[in-house]
Amino acid sequence: MTTCFLTYAMAAVFALAPAAALAEWQAVEEVRPYSISGKSGAELYESIGARGPKAGVTGRVIAHTTFKLTWTRKYEPQGNACVITTNRPKLIITYTLPKPAAALPAVVESSWESFISGVAAHERVHGETIKEMVKEIETASIGLTVADDPDCKKIRIELTRRLGEISARQRQRGRDFDKVEMGDGGNIQQLILKLVNGP
Hints:
Blueprint lengths: L1 E2 L24 E9 L4 H11 L2 E2 L3 E2 L3 E15 L2 E20 L5 H36 L3 E2 L7 H28 L5 H11 L2
Parallel strand pairs: 1-5, 2-6
Antiparallel strand pairs: 3-4, 5-6, 6-7
Helix pairs in contact: 1-4, 2-3, 2-4
């Protein structure tokens, strides 16, 4: 499972805005299912391997989390400086998860529900780290001030630099989480074993 990301992201004087100045927003979260087939846990997992989201050049994953992040920003010259006075995010998180195309035998349905609930919970952790990243970007952006920048050009470079660092930390958190979850004895490995070895 992988988390895709978009990098956004810019010297000078940096001022933290009071909490009241931060915009209230809600992430839009949606589930995008892809169809799999099978009448047993092993068959379902085999179908996931054939139809799961592509990762890298040749590999596939069980599920993944992607997001689209855009910003409404206002850069205002103040004297000889430039200040970000508005910084509202629009965040859409998409969880791509497998879904059987046909009804399953009752005993397999129970096994499947345990599996997909665990996988979905894993992906939601990625979703939470994305939301935390956006909040950190918001806090780091609003009120950002760059001196000697009346044309508001330097501030964009500085914002890109700062937000690149925040984005890199989010990506590393995702990699570290996946390493634990999918390592030997990890949660995802256990979910797979229970599904494949079940009915």
